[in-house]
Inverse folding.
């Protein structure tokens, strides 16, 4: 049997999440800032859990819990996957610790599904140590660094503006909520958004980065300039630590993090799950 916890009881799962401190989403959930559903094997002293947070799912605790795994497999097949398919989604992400969850995922939780291994990396920077000068934000001619704010969103002629709004709502429920609680920068060239860099999972004195540069505008130093600008804003807002996640094989992303003053903290496993 499994149990779904009410948010006021999420804190009993804190010990199970400890090996995953690099996922700020977990801290945000515990602080009541990010909506989530958490399923556990035991109501008072759980040993295994599955958290459902938007498009991602987190597994923690004991991975070879047969009864729990059987019940969670049913939740995936009867609740999670139909929910995502009804919304036009064709994939979801699984994050887990310890790594032994991998066997349970393949054999018990999602047997027969297209499971794509994805080694990921986490980088972090302390904003008090990561201080840049104005030259670090210099851009090629024809490009302008702007804040993501209400004024920018009024420029409805900008191409990719709707994509930016979608990204703003990837972790926040609405654009307004993002503007109230998060922050970001973007780069404008002529009548187009060339890229953006947004804070995610703002929680206490930490946040993470979500970044995108248009394919036509890569290798111009835009991502580094946006990242450094965002770190400056984070410092001014009292954010102490900024995190960065990427696939281990995404060398340009890792290079941007390092160039922007981030340090490699750890590698961790994940799975991308095909739903069709």
């Amino acid at each position: 049997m499994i149990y779904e916890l009410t948010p006021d009881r999420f804190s009993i799962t804190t010990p199970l999440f400890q090996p995953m401190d690099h996922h700020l989403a977990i801290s945000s959930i515990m602080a009541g800032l990010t909506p989530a559903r958490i399923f556990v094997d035991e109501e008072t002293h759980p040993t295994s859990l599955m958290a459902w947070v938007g498009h991602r799912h987190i597994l923690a605790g004991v991975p070879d819990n047969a009864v729990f795994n059987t019940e969670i497999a049913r939740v995936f097949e009867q609740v999670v996957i139909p929910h995502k398919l009804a919304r036009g989604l064709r994939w979801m992400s699984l994050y887990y610790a310890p790594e032994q969850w991998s066997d349970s995922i393949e054999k018990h939780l999602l047997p027969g599904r297209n499971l794509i291994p994805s080694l990921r990396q986490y980088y972090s920077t302390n904003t008090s140590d990561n201080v840049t000068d104005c030259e670090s934000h210099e851009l090629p001619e024809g490009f302008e660094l702007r804040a993501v704010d209400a004024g920018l969103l009024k420029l409805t002629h900008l191409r990719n503006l709707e994509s930016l709004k979608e990204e703003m709502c990837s972790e926040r429920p609405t654009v307004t909520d993002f503007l109230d609680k998060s922050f970001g920068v973007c780069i404008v060239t002529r009548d187009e958004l060339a890229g953006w860099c947004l804070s995610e999972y703002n929680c206490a004195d930490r946040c993470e980065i979500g970044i995108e540069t248009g394919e036509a505008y890569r290798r111009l130093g835009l991502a580094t300039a946006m990242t450094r600008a965002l770190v400056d804003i984070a410092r001014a807002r009292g954010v102490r630590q900024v995190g960065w996640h990427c696939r281990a094989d995404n060398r340009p992303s890792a290079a941007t993090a390092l160039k922007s003053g981030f340090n490699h903290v750890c590698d961790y496993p994940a799975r991308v799950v095909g739903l069709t």
User: Anything to note?
Assistant: The chain is about 30% helix and 30% strand. The first strand starts at residue 3 and ends at 5. The mean pLDDT is 95.
